[in-house]
Amino acid sequence: MISKKGTVVLGVIGADVHAIGNQILEYALREADFKVINIGVMASQKEFVQAAIETGADAIWVSSLYGHGEMDCRGLRNKCCEAGIGDILIYVGGNLVIGKQNWQETEKLFKNMGFDRVYPPGTLPGVSINDLLEDLKLSKGDKK
Questions:
Q1: Which residues are catalytic?
Q2: Which of 16, 43, 53, 62 has the least C-beta neighbours within 10 A?
């Protein structure tokens, strides 16, 4: 089946092995008619970038649940720029930092690192899918 709305590279970055949320996002994106390239858990920045290049992806979705997202995600936008895909949408979500920290500060930190959207733990997939549709300038019924 040909996707109507775009291609998303999805994965869990760094040494994180939390796969359940990743699988839920994959299912939700497919149900929303996106082509999903799920690179799985323990993915490196290089793997995200390479998958995005190989598939002509519209977006990279990074998941991190073990609290080391800042360390694992820093530099991803630069790697995309160096690879010639600097304008790709990059979203990140999960438990991105260790301990309880002010969400607004965490969101600002990741946006300053080049992420277009940043989601706290517990965000429902529909929220980020709607944001993606908006960012891609598509309505739910439109074809790319």
A1: 16, 18
A2: 53
